[in-house]
Amino acid sequence: MAKEFSRTRRIGQQLQQELAVVLQRDMKDPRIGFVTVNDVDVSRDLSYAKVFVTFFEEDKDVVQEKLNALIAAAPYIRTLVAGRMKLRVMPEIRFVYDSSLVEGMRMSNLVSQVINSDKAKQQQFGSVDDDVIENDIEESDDTEGKV
Q1: What is the pLDDT of residue 142?
Q2: What is the pLDDT of residue 1?
Q3: What are the subcellular locations of this protein?
């Protein structure tokens, strides 16, 4: 029977927490800016860790520059995190941009725009009264029985 939380998953969770702290407190590179560590996938042999990060930037060039800065600093970040974790071998860190959070925010904004547009159209053309809708429903019920 497999364990509910495997060792690789536990190490991934701890690595995510330590990376977040290191990136927030210890990294002084202005090119990186504010970065969020969304998830960490650790390989089964613990030799590689794929770190999914998000930047709150919409410009793809700026995001790529920040990601390149993180990739260049990966060995230094690995050293800092290794000092905070008690592992025999520290996984090699590979940073990957995760656009799911930004896409989710974009979709939420689109839904909000549609809702606001609908409200504006209702105000412009007048809203339909509930009484009119109820009368239409009653009339359709009456006509269904007379077929």
Answers
A1: 56
A2: 44
A3: Cytoplasm
Structure confidence at residue 145 (pLDDT): 52
Q: 89-111: buried (b, 16+ CB within 10 Å) or exposed (e) per residue?
A: ebbebebebbeeebeeeeeeeee
Question: How confident is the model at residue 17, as a pLDDT?
Answer: 93
Tokens of 114: 């549609």
* The pLDDT of residue 139: 58
Write out residues in the chain with pLDDT < 50, as ranges: 1, 130-131, 147
Following DSSP, what letter does each residue of the chain receive, concatenated?
Answer: ---SS-HHHHHHHHHHHHHHHIIIII---TTT-SEEEEEEEE-TTSSEEEEEEEES---HHHHHHHHHHHHHHHHHHHHHHHHHS--SSPPEEEEEE--HHHHHHHHHHHHHHHHHHHHHHHHHH-PPPHHHHHHHHHHHHHHHTT-
Domains with residue ranges and CATH for the chain: 7-98 (3.30.300.20), 105-144 (no CATH)
Taking the CA of residue 80 as centre, how many other CA atoms within 13 Å lie in the half-sphere pointing to its CB?
Answer: 17
